[in-house]
């Protein structure tokens, strides 16, 4: 520590304060203008801090786990009865699902449908949240080293969380569907009406660009439409929860503010071309690279 | 609750004790960005960092220089994904205001110190809300901001108690 006389110290502080205020203002303006620089700075800091944050977040989550366990212990009998009953019901559903899956695969065979790209999962821990009402994002402790890439979907068992917006080598940022900058192409299940789910930093994002006169009801399920190629179709997002002022608002299935672990999913949609499928008959599927190639050869 | 008495003359603390304000402010920053399994928590996470800045600016202003406040603020901005500089600016201004009014707060009863913090955090939250509304060119729903301010203010006594205890046990009281 430098030993300055009290007077010189005060003088130094008199200069540093306005300088730092100025620097803050410049940073705010620059951060708004130069997103690329900001992002690299942010990922660098996140990479450095993520391991520390991960360790520090452990006691809190351990405590939370303990509390949950204690709460569950109280209702263990009721839970058991309820689960047994639910299990009974789900067994019925499982039979139905197996039958449908078999039927589905047979129909796909009949239609010669291209198999969907293989999906790879990665589970990452949430180590920091945005801590404020103005940005809805979380930091996860997994980065490009683990195969996380920008644009991948972030989900939990309940449904869509958001998408990966920034990636460092060890940490990544997930933009939640509630953020002001989040736009997700969705479809209203049942009516197949397309819309855009837009966040506005409130707990419930709203639906934009719905056709006028669309019959939409509270309780309608909203799933991703797969348009735009970021999310695969059919991921559950939420249910329509209110229609105040003619704007349908969607309650996400995932309780976004208390997500502890997130699954980052690589649907292989980023490198868009599907794998060649030898069984495709000529001309039946356009846009299929190998199919097109074969088609052209045979025409010659 | 008894207010921490400020030193009449600044006695030399040992090196670790001199770092206490910076370390605790840094810890407060880390705590404030921790995810908590409480519904809706992220949006209203209390501004623990502001509490630490307020406390140390009253009781040990020299040990929490503007540069450290700035760096902690910028780090918080970068880690939370907000525009960098915003929290730094708010905390620098808060520090400057408290420093100017400091003589009114030292050696005063806790309710007085708490009232001071209420006004400061209320102002800081409104300022934050105004900046973000300006940057996003949209009126952001103010309810979240109000709730966050209320939560921050109501948790201040606990934070102040903890900071005071650490201060008394590790630093000379002069």
What does this molecule look like?
The complex is a heterodimer of chains A (300) and B (174). With 300 residues, chain A is of the alpha+beta class. Chain A is built from four helices and twelve strands. Chain A folds into three domains: 11-71, no CATH class; 78-111; 121-266, Thrombin, subunit H, CATH 2.40.10.340. Chain A has helices spanning 6-33, 35-74, 76-111, 289-299, and strands spanning 120-129, 137-140, 153-155, 160-167, 172-176, 183-188, 193-198, 206-208, 221-224, 236-242, 249-252, 261-266. In chain A, strand 4 (160-167) and strand 5 form a beta hairpin. Chain A is globular and about 85 Å long. Mean pLDDT of chain A is 80; it is low at 272-300. With 174 residues, chain B is mainly alpha-helical. Chain B has a single domain (15-33, 42-168), classed as Arp2/3 complex 21 kDa subunit ARPC3, CATH 1.10.1760. Helix content of chain B is 70%, strand content 0%. The two termini of chain B are 20 Å apart. Chains A and B meet through helix 1, helix 2, strand 1 and strand 2 of A and helix 1, helix 2, helix 4, helix 5 and helix 7 of B.
Secondary-structure blueprint:
The complex is a heterodimer of chains A (300) and B (174).
Chain A (H helix, E strand, L loop, with lengths): L5 H28 L1 H40 L1 H36 L8 E10 L7 E4 L12 E3 L4 E8 L4 E5 L6 E6 L4 E6 L7 E3 L12 E4 L11 E7 L6 E4 L8 E6 L22 H11 L1
Antiparallel strand pairs in A: 1-2, 1-12, 2-5, 3-4, 3-12, 4-5, 6-7, 6-9, 7-8, 9-10, 10-11
Chain B lengths: L14 H18 L8 H4 L3 H12 L6 H15 L5 H15 L1 H4 L4 H26 L7 H28 L4
